[in-house]
TrEMBL record:
Keyword Coiled coil on entry: yes
Segments forming domain HTH cro/C1-type: 21-75
UniProt-listed Pfam families: HTH_3
Coiled-coil regions listed in the entry: 92-126
Name the record gives this protein: Transcriptional regulator
Keywords tagged on the record: Coiled coil
Any GO MF annotation of the entry: DNA binding
Lyase as UniProt keyword: no
Length: 126
């Protein structure tokens, strides 16, 4: 019953089906071609759906929702589980953190190489 009351009381996403489809695909960092392969249609068909020139059939809606991690009701009506757009932000933060760690390791490695080169020079001079 709680799920039903959430659908009834939730503020709907007022975008079109095509707009929601496009946003969900972007949130998954998926190209039009990749989504087309997943649901078995040409990229042109996905583009037509995203631009609201046509709409997917029920079977494709189920495939789209599953591929994009959203509910069919969100795609159709804008109510239900929408894409978690914070996933992309979290992934971006993780990548930036990993880059910072690699840069620190790179600096440390450079310092260690310099120390070893100095030690080799000292040994040659002795």
């Amino acid at each position: 019953m709680n799920f039903i009351s959430n659908i009834i009381t939730a503020m709907p996403d007022t975008d079109t089906l095509g707009g929601r489809l496009s946003r969900a695909r972007d949130a998954k960092s998926m190209s039009v071609a990749e989504l087309g392969v997943r649901v078995g249609v040409k990229p042109e068909t996905i583009a037509a759906w995203e631009s609201d020139r046509s709409e997917p059939g029920v079977n494709r809606l189920f495939m789209l929702a599953g591929s994009l991690g959203v509910t069919q009701t969100w795609l159709i009506h804008g109510v239900g589980q929408s894409p978690d757009e914070s996933d992309a932000a979290d992934e971006n933060r993780l990548l930036k953190s990993q880059i910072a760690n690699l840069k620190a390791l790179h600096r440390e490695l450079g310092e260690r190489i310099e120390e070893l080169e100095k030690a080799v020079l000292r040994l040659k001079a002795a």
